[in-house]
Amino acid sequence: MCWKKESLKLMCVVFLVACALYAIQDFRSQDNFEYTQPYSGELLFRPGAIIDGDSLRGFAVLEDDTVVYARYRVNSMEQKDQLESLVDHSHFQVRGIFEAPSEPSHRYSFNMNNYLQHNGAAKLLIIQSLDGTAKSSTWITKLLKQRDLIQFHIREHFPKSLATEAEALLIGERENMDSEDQRMYQTLGISHLFAISGLHVGIASGLLYFLLIRLHVRKENALIALLIVLPLYAIIAGGAPSVWRAVSMVSVVLLGKLFNFKFPLANIMLTSMIVFILWNPYIMYKIGFQLSYGATFGIVYSRKLLEKIHSPLKMGFVITFISQVTLYPLLLVYFYELSLSAFVVNSLFVPLFTLLILPANFLLLFLTVIFPPAADVLFYFYEPLRDWIDQLMKWLASLPHQLWTPGKPGVRSFILLISSVYVFYCLAERRFKLSQLLILVIPALLITAFPYLDGRLKVTFLDVGQGDSALIELPYRQAVYLVDSGGLLRFDTEAFKEKKRPYEIGRQVVAPYLKGNGISSIDAFILSHPDADHAEGADEIFDLFPVDKLHVTPGSATNPLMVQLAPHIKKTEVVFPGADSTWHVDNTQFTYLSPTDANYEGNNDSLVLLMETGDYRILFIGDLEAKGENELLESYSKELAGLTVLKVGHHGSKTSSSVKFLSVLNPALSIFSTGKDNRYGHPSPEVVERFNEADLTTMNTAENGTIQLLYNGKVVEIKTMR
């Protein structure tokens, strides 16, 4: 604001208010609550609670106004149908128990504890039984009921190919959007078009105002109608921060027109922001709030620059550029990557959505209510047109090198990026020159280069629950290797238990760690063997990262899991290495010690990989059992003696880690990769005792979280998540 010559008094007031609000919120977040306490009483779910598969979950308010995150396991299809009709507007009599949130796998994965605190709920309530319900008849629940009716109407009257998009654009419901489509929108940088924001509110306001004027309603009455309808629409549309920001700013502008006064847009923006934070201090943590006000801040404070532009096409491009540049440091903090094509693609799709897609959806909703035959005619032409646009999106998203993935910036990097954006705006408004883009480009290149300046060898054992996944990053990022991807055992379940978005280890644990560290491609993906807990998440990795080579154990190509993976690896070279296969990168040597034949029979045919750099040696043995260990010792006992690190075989099962094997290897550190409270009881107490009797140091991902080993050529530094 300095270069805008805002008063020092105003800036001080804004700063002090921000500090006070943060302090209030921080105080409210403190909770000395003891978990494992039972609860019995009334509960009301907040808007946004969802039923997915056999799980009902969402934020809820208890009878003493305590906010919790509640979960309930649905028992039957009949109960699921009943709850779907009750959850948004009923009080529930429940019994349950409070639990501590599970800890994150690593610092880039979803943090449930932070999620609860940032929504004003430090408690997690596991509902054990629903003992009764009572209808809630507040005006908000009645509005939410209208939202449900609109959603039902869209599903009944819109073609299936258009219904999901209409729900997102008209009422802010994105729960049913296909994950493939969401990834396509992220690649193109147009996800914001499917979240209700200022664009949607502006179009809705304009269409309603036009309709009222056409119906010969006086301008003053039309403005009053808009002032009444817009807040109601904000609630029906899901009440996201971006919606309320747009509604509040548009409402102030409308009030100005109604009473013939004018407020500076900057003051309107800052006032609405402070009002919302006073109303709900936790809103400052919501990414929608931060991005919405961030983009608006950039545009409002660039009006002087925009006033010099007279071409509508150029204006659209510059507004897109300003929004992207203003937000990109924040986008990196949350998503670790940025769509480079967004600068161009948004210039195409923002006008397309503004002039065609959004108005068409509003019009189609209106016609399906008052005159369905006219809507059917319009659908006949609009559906194939929308399909053609979708094909264009897919083609654009398939183009290579669209995503810049520098990883999550640290505090100093974030300050550097924010400062570069500020300096760029200061200079560009005085007189823009192309050379000024270097102010943005150089810091971006610097944070991208940081990993390539790190001379340490990094090996990370990811906490993927009951499974295996390890990441190898060679010094100066000469190569990146992923050993296994974790995964879940999937069992046939009743239809009502199937989730719209099942939990995916590869997408939700492994991929965030790679992207958070600025890794955008994998040189070699090593699947030790095709068991679900090692390879079920592999398809998600191939969908999200280009992979140069895939190493799989010989003879496993016909395994059902590998057959399912086949469509995802068409662009990847597949290698079937056996014993004594080797390669090296600089001073680091990689050697496969097993298997010795091409007949895959199970765990003992796991790929066994030895990594060596000087005296530093790490052995990855998959799910090798005692028989395989003995065969390994027959050929490589000298090479394995005095090992530095052992990734313990088969998660510490009692069929692995024999006394003889451990006595020969005598590893300085052994890593168990297991899930907390897993159903198999891994690591076996017998195996743990063997390590203890041999006085061997062990670590376990179930207890330590993700474990990272950093070797600088002399000493090993160990970092853990917990």
What does this structure look like?
The protein contains 25 helices and 23 strands. It is about 45% helix and about 15% strand. The radius of gyration is 29 Å and the shape is globular. The strands form four sheets. The protein has an eight-stranded mixed β-sheet with strand order 14-13-12-11-10-9-22-23, with no helix packed on it. The protein is of the alpha/beta class and about 725 residues long.
Unreliable spans are none
Strand % is 15-25%
In one word, what is the shape? globular
DSSP E strands, number = 23
| Cα Rg | 29 Å
Query: How far is the N terminus from the C terminus?
Result: 41 Å
Please state the average pLDDT score: 89
Number of helices: 25
Q: Strands of the largest sheet, in order across it?
A: 14-13-12-11-10-9-22-23
Q: SS-based structural class? A: alpha/beta
- State the major sheet: 8 strands, mixed
Helix fraction by DSSP (H/I, runs of at least 4): 40-55%
Outline the secondary-structure elements.
Layout: H1 8-29, E1 38-45, E2 50-52, E3 55-62, E4 67-73, H2 77-86, E5 90-99, H3 112-117, E6 123-135, H4 139-157, H5 160-171, H6 179-188, H7 198-214, H8 219-236, H9 241-259, H10 265-279, H11 287-300, H12 303-306, H13 312-335, E7 338-339, H14 342-370, H15 372-398, E8 403-404, H16 411-430, H17 438-449, E9 457-461, E10 470-473, E11 480-483, H18 505-516, E12 522-527, H19 532-535, H20 538-544, E13 547-552, H21 560-565, E14 573-575, E15 582-585, E16 588-594, E17 608-613, E18 616-620, H22 626-640, E19 645-647, H23 659-665, E20 669-672, H24 685-693, E21 698-700, H25 701-704, E22 707-711, E23 716-720
Helix pairs in contact: 1-10, 4-5, 6-15, 7-8, 7-9, 7-14, 8-9, 9-10, 10-11, 11-13, 13-14, 13-16, 14-15, 16-17, 18-20, 22-23
